[in-house]
């Protein structure tokens, strides 16, 4: 029996487009003589649909498109995700559902039993948990159907299970030919290794292959890597889809073998490809064809420009450098060299005259050389960039990294302005790693950009290290506090307490700034976005823990 893993890139709410994509892949799978084709979780609605689920017409329309998909299932079985109505008199109104269709008939439905409610997930807000198992019979084979989180509560893997039930415990000890898991599992760096480990444990313990189909692409701040796979009962990979692109892979159940497509072979490549997909899909799915970046000659704007060029094509990227009174000659030169290396359009617009006009108007020509004037320079640059964005329809990409965003080393309504924050979840050390990765075959990021001390260049001889600890230290403290939820007391076992206190204070005090920043692409376990619900106004003493 040949099984097709249809790893598709859906758009949330685009029911017609998603259904068309599903039908196209049904036809492709049939042409490859597959007898079963499997699609990701909520593949008709896209994931996550969030408050679109509050509109009953949206649910009704998703059922209409399910019926259209049913009409295209002649001579092939189809498993895909959709939203079904809860017709009982209690509970949430809808189910996160999987459907089995064969020869234009709906054979059965399965309702997701474990609904995640942590990090970026909020499924208990919308869905009623299912209660029953489903064993799908296709030809002479039997498959145990699950949806994403249903297989993420393995008692042999987690020290503490998050849910009271474990659907994997209900898999029959015999008579099952495979376990199917349709998923919409967001990307995190190295998460694919965790998935392999969890499902390998299940496959070996149950003695049956696990067939996992994940979505790919970007929706808002969430990125989906795909990397759909089949793991045999021996714990070895039998089929794999590529990462960060649509793919259709065939697995032969009888021969226990399938196609193995390439995936990223380093952390830097994985992060780079994820960010490219994030930029490309965000622009494509909301209608932007071109992007704009302010080039400072620094590492962040250089890496952002390289990502944008790879994602959108060099003809669709505009770089603007805006030298001021404290800009070094090297910054302008490095910006121009970067644009030439990338082949993108480049403009130079000096902003010193505009700054002087502000000073003359607001301060009668008197300069204070204080933080307000530093921030004024950043805000002037933002206004210049937004003029070009508005006039020519370019999406402005902000360039700040997670390290600086965490402690407020950025200007609200200045360099934080824009439509998408590409590096907002990328620590500074990783930004440098990305730059070196990009230069692996030829110089893309100018060498001086990588080697010179980072600086905002908003005052004479300014260096980041005047205000911040070394980025290696800052990034580690940031990871411990934001991602690992460590207290000041715990982190201070590794670093001076005064330093840790200062950084934690800055992180907490700058929550109001981050809340007003551009949407950022999520790459780490805890980004400054939908998955981190930290109060702006709070007075807890983190030294007490």
Would you give the CATH topology of the largest domain? Nitrilase/N-carbamoyl-D-aminoacid amidohydrolase
What would you report as the Rg, rounded to the nearest angstrom?
Answer: 25 Å
Name the CATH superfamily assignment of the largest domain.
Carbon-nitrogen hydrolase
Number of helices: 15
Structural class: alpha/beta
Specify the biggest β-sheet.
Answer: 7 strands, mixed
**End-to-end distance:** 56 Å
Q: Helical percent range?
A: 25-40%
Write down the overall geometry: elongated
CATH class of the largest domain: Alpha Beta
Percent range for β-strand residues: 15-25%
Task: Provide an overview of this structure.
The strands form four sheets. Strands 5-4-3-2-1-14-15 form a seven-stranded mixed β-sheet, covered by helices on one side. A six-stranded mixed β-sheet has the order 6-7-8-9-12-13. It folds into two domains: 2-263, 4-Layer Sandwich (Nitrilase/N-carbamoyl-D-aminoacid amidohydrolase), CATH 3.60.110; 269-515, HUPs (Rossmann fold), CATH 3.40.50. The protein is of the alpha/beta class and 545 residues long. The chain has helices at 15-31, 56-70, 191-206, 267-286, 299-312, 329-342, 352-363, 371-392, 402-407, 428-438, 447-451, 471-483, 488-491, 497-509, 511-515, and strands at 2-7, 36-38, 77-85, 94-102, 105-111, 135-138, 141-147, 178-183, 210-214, 216-219, 222-225, 229-231, 237-240, 247-252, 257-258, 291-294, 317-321, 345-348, 395-398, 420-421. The model has no long low-confidence stretch (mean pLDDT 94). It is elongated. It starts with a strand and ends in a 30-residue tail after the last helix. The chain contains 15 helices and 20 strands. The longest helix has 22 residues, at 371-392.
């Amino acid at each position: 029996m040949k099984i097709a893993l249809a790893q598709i890139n859906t758009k949330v709410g685009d029911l017609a487009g998603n259904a068309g994509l599903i039908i196209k892949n049904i036809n492709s799978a049939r042409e490859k003589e597959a007898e079963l084709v499997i699609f990701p979780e909520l593949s008709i609605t896209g994931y996550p649909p969030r408050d679109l689920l509050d509109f009953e017409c949206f649910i009704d329309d998703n059922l209409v498109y399910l019926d259209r998909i049913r009409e295209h299932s002649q001579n092939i079985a189809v498993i895909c995700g959709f939203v079904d109505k809860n017709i009982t008199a209690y509970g949430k109104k809808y189910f996160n559902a999987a459907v089995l269709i064969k020869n234009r008939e709906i054979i059965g439905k399965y309702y997701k039993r474990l609904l995640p409610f942590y990090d970026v997930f909020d499924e208990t807000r919308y869905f009623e948990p299912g209660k029953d198992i489903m064993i799908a019979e296709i030809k002479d084979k039997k498959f145990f159907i699950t949806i994403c989180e249903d297989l993420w509560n393995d008692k042999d893997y987690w020290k503490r299970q998050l849910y009271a039930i474990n659907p994997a415990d209900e898999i029959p000890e015999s008579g099952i030919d495979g376990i199917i898991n349709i998923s919409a599992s967001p990307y995190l760096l190295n998460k694919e290794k965790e998935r392999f480990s969890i499902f390998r444990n299940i496959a070996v313990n149950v003695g049956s292959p696990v067939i996992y189909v994940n979505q790919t692409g970007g929706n808002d701040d969430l990125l989906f890597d795909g990397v759909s796979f089949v793991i045999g009962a021996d714990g070895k990979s039998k089929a794999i889809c590529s990462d960060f692109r649509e793919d259709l892979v065939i697995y032969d159940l009888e021969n226990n073998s399938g196609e193995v497509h390439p995936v990223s072979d380093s952390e830097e490549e994985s992060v780079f490809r994820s960010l490219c997909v994030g930029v490309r899909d965000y622009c494509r799915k909301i209608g932007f064809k071109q992007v704009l970046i302010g080039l400072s000659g620094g590492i962040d704007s250089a890496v952002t420009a390289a990502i944008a060029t790879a994602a959108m094509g060099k003809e669709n990227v505009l770089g603007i450098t805006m030298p001021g009174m404290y800009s070094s000659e090297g910054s302008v030169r490095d910006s121009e060299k970067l644009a030439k290396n990338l082949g993108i359009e480049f403009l130079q617009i000096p902003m010193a005259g505009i700054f002087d006009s502000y000073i003359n108007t607001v301060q009668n020509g008197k300069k204070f050389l204080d933080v307000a004037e530093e921030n004024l320079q950043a805000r002037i640059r933002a206004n210049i960039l937004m003029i070009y964005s508005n006039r020519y329809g370019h999406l402005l990409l902000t360039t700040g990294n997670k390290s600086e965003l965490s402690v407020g080393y950025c200007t609200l309504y200045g360099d934080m302005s824009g439509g998408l924050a590409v590096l907002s979840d990328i620590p500074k050390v990783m930004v440098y790693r990305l730059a070196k990765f990009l230069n692996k075959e030829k110089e893309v990021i100018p060498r001086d950009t990588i080697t010179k001390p980072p600086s905002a260049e908003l005052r004479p001889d300014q260096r980041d290290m005047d205000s911040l600890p070394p980025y290696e230290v800052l990034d580690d403290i940031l990871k411990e506090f934001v991602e690992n939820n460590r207290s000041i007391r715990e982190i201070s076992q590794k670093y001076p307490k005064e330093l840790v206190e200062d950084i934690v204070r800055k992180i907490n005090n700058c929550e109001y700034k981050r809340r007003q920043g551009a949407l950022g692409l999520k790459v780490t376990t805890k980004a400054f976005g939908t998955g981190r619900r930290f109060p702006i106004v709070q007075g807890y003493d983190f030294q007490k823990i």
